[in-house]
C-alpha cells in the first residue's frame, strides 16, 4: 500500500446515466458526512441508506443523493467505506470528484486499489481478486459461473490445502534438523516421501486436465473450412444471424479469414470463415488459402464443409484424423434425393442447407456439446491464469528434488520452496511485482 490516505473513485462508467456511484475508502471516509451533508457521522447507522442533499465544501448544493456507510472491517476493502449514489450527470460527477480532491488526506484511487486494499486487509486472496477481474469481464454464463466459483474460494481451498500438507511435511522434516546424529525412522521416511509423491501427482494431474481456461476467457476457436462455393460464408452468417461474410457464386470471393464472436449456450466461441481450399494461381488467394490451413491447424473445433451436390467427404481425407473435434458437413442438402441424403448420413456427414437455415441449430448444438464435455472434464478447479500454471510447475520441480537420502537441510529447503511457489498463487508470500501486475489491470474504482 503506497500510503494511508483515503481514496475515492467513480465506480460506475463515466458518462450520462441514471445513477453514478462514487466509492470512498479509508480512515477519513466518514468525514464526508460532516463536510458534504447535514448528517453527523456519529449518528450514522452502517449499511443504512440515507437520502440527503449533497453540497460542496463551500455549501453549494450539488445534488440529491443516496449515501451509505460501511464500518471497518465490515466492508469490501476492510476499511471505513462510504458509497455516494448521485444522478449520473457528467456535471455532478465532475464537481463531486473535484470536491473530494480538495479534502485533506483524500486522493484519487489508482487502478485496482480498492481490491488491493481488500487483499492487504485479508478480505480476499489473490485467486479471489483474479475471479473478480474475470467476473467484471464476463460476457457469457459459463464465464460468469467460473468467475463466481473462483471468487467463492474454490481454487483457494485447493491450493491452501496443498500448501498446508507441505507445511505439515516440512514441520516433520525440520524436526530432525536439530538432531543430525539421529537417523530418521524408516517408516517416517517412507511416509514423508510417499506424501510428497502423492501431492506431486495431484498437482501434475491438475495441470494436465486443465486445457480450456484460456479459451473460456478469449473464446473457443471454430474454423469453417472447405472448397470454394461450399457455402461457408452462408453458414457463418446463419450461425451469427447477421451478414459478416460476403456471399457470392463467384469462386474465391472469400480471400481473408473472417471472424465472428458468438455466445454459444454460454460458451464464448469465435467462428472463422476461411478462403476456399483449392489450387490457385492468384497470389492474393494463395495467401488466404495458406491462412486457412493455419487456422485449421490451430482450431479447437473444425467444420469441414462441402457442396453435397458436386463433392463428397473424401476431399477432406488429408485433414481428418483420430480426434473427434470436427464435423463433416454436407451443404445444399435440399438439392439431394432421399437416397443421396441417406448415403451421406451413413458416412457420418451432417446434412444442412445454409441458404435455408436448415439444421443449423443441430450443428451448433453438437459444437457446444463438445465444449461442454471439455469443460466438465476440467471444471473441478480450472487454472484461470498462466501465473498459476508457472507457480505449480515450480512447485513440482522442487518436489521432484525432494529426497531424504541427501542432507536434511537441503530436503527441507525443497519443501520450503515448493510451499513458496504455491503461496505465490494465493498471496501467502510477499510478491509485490505480482500484485502490481494483477491489480494494475483493474479499472479505476474497483
List the helices and strands and how they pair.
Blueprint: E1 6-10, E2 17-25, H1 31-36, E3 50-55, E4 61-70, E5 81-88, H2 90-101, E6 106-108, H3 113-120, H4 126-137, H5 141-151, H6 154-174, H7 186-209, H8 213-218, E7 220-225, H9 232-240, E8 258-264, E9 267-273, H10 283-298, E10 301-307, E11 326-331, H11 338-346, E12 350-351, H12 360-378, H13 386-401, H14 408-426, H15 432-439
Parallel strand pairs: 1-6, 7-9, 7-10, 10-11, 11-12
Antiparallel strand pairs: 1-2, 2-5, 3-4, 4-5, 8-9
Helix pairs in contact: 4-5, 6-7, 6-14, 7-13, 13-14
Note down, in words, how this protein is organized.
The protein has 446 residues and is α/β, with parallel strands linked by helices. The chain has 3 domains: 6-120, Probable tRNA modification gtpase trme, domain 1 (Gyrase A, domain 2); 126-210 and 384-426, tRNA modification GTPase MnmE domain 2 (Four Helix Bundle (Hemerythrin (Met), subunit A)), CATH 1.20.120.430; 216-378, P-loop containing nucleotide triphosphate hydrolases (Rossmann fold, 3-Layer(aba) Sandwich), CATH 3.40.50. It has helices at residues 31-36, 90-101, 113-120, 126-137, 141-151, 154-174, 186-209, 213-218, 232-240, 283-298, 338-346, 360-378, 386-401, 408-426, 432-439, and strands at residues 6-10, 17-25, 50-55, 61-70, 81-88, 106-108, 220-225, 258-264, 267-273, 301-307, 326-331, 350-351. The strands form 2 sheets. A 6-stranded mixed beta sheet has the order 3-4-5-2-1-6. The protein is flat and about 85 Å long. The chain starts with 5 loop residues before the first strand and ends in a 7-residue tail after the last helix.
Amino acid at each position: 500500500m503506497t500510503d494511508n490516505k483515503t481514496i475515492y473513485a467513480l465506480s460506475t462508467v463515466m458518462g450520462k446515466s441514471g445513477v453514478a456511484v462514487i466509492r470512498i475508502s479509508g480512515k477519513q471516509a466518514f468525514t464526508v458526512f460532516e463536510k458534504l451533508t447535514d448528517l453527523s457521522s456519529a449518528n450514522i447507522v452502517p449499511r443504512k441508506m440515507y437520502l440527503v442533499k449533497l453540497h460542496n465544501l463551500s455549501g453549494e448544493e450539488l445534488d440529491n443523493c443516496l449515501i451509505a456507510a460501511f464500518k471497518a472491517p465490515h466492508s469490501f476493502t476492510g476499511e471505513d467505506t462510504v458509497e455516494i449514489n448521485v444522478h449520473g450527470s457528467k456535471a455532478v460527477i465532475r464537481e463531486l470528484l473535484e470536491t473530494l480532491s480538495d479534502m485533506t488526506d483524500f486522493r484519487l484511487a489508482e487502478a485496482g486499489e480498492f481490491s488491493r486494499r481488500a487483499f492487504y486487509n485479508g478480505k480476499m486472496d489473490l485467486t479471489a481478486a483474479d475471479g473478480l477481474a474475470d467476473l467484471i469481464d464476463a460476457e457469457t454464463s459459463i464465464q460468469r459461473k467460473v468467475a463466481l466459483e473462483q471468487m467463492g474460494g474454490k481454487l483457494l481451498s485447493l491450493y491452501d490445502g496443498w500448501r498446508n500438507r507441505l507445511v505439515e511435511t516440512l514441520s516433520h522434516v525440520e524436526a530432525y534438523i536439530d538432531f543430525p546424529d539421529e537417523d530418521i525412522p524408516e517408516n517416517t521416511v517412507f511416509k514423508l516421501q510417499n506424501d510428497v509423491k502423492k501431492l506431486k501427482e495431484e498437482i501434475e494431474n491438475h495441470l494436465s486436465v486443465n486445457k480450456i481456461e484460456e479459451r473460456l476467457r478469449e473464446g473457443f476457436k471454430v474454423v469453417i473450412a472447405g472448397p470454394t462455393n461450399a457455402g461457408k460464408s452462408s453458414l457463418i452468417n446463419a450461425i451469427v444471424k447477421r451478414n459478416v461474410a460476403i456471399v457470392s457464386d463467384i469462386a474465391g470471393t472469400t480471400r481473408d479469414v473472417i471472424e465472428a464472436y458468438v455466445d454459444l449456450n454460454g460458451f464464448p466461441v469465435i467462428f472463422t470463415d476461411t478462403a476456399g481450399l483449392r489450387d490457385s494461381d492468384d497470389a492474393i488467394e494463395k495467401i488466404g488459402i495458406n491462412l486457412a490451413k493455419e487456422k485449421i491447424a490451430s482450431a479447437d473445433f473444425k467444420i469441414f464443409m462441402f457442396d453435397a451436390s458436386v463433392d463428397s467427404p473424401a476431399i477432406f481425407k488429408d485433414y481428418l484424423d483420430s480426434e473427434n473435434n470436427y464435423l463433416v458437413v454436407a451443404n445444399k442438402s435440399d438439392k439431394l434425393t432421399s437416397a443421396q441424403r441417406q448415403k451421406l448420413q451413413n458416412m457420418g456427414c451432417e446434412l444442412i442447407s445454409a441458404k435455408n437455415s436448415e439444421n443449423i441449430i443441430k450443428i451448433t448444438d453438437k459444437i457446444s456439446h463438445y465444449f461442454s464435455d471439455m469443460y466438465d472434464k476440467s471444471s473441478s478447479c480450472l487454472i484461470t491464469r498462466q501465473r498459476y500454471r508457472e507457480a505449480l510447475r515450480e512447485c513440482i520441480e522442487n518436489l521432484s528434488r525432494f529426497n531424504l537420502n541427501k542432507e536434511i537441510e537441503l530436503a527441507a529447503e525443497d519443501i520450503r520452496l515448493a510451499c513458496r511457489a504455491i503461496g505465490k498463487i494465493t498471496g501467502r508470500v510477499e510478491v509485490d511485482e505480482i500484485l502490481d501486475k494483477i491489480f494494475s489491470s483493474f479499472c479505476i474504482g474497483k
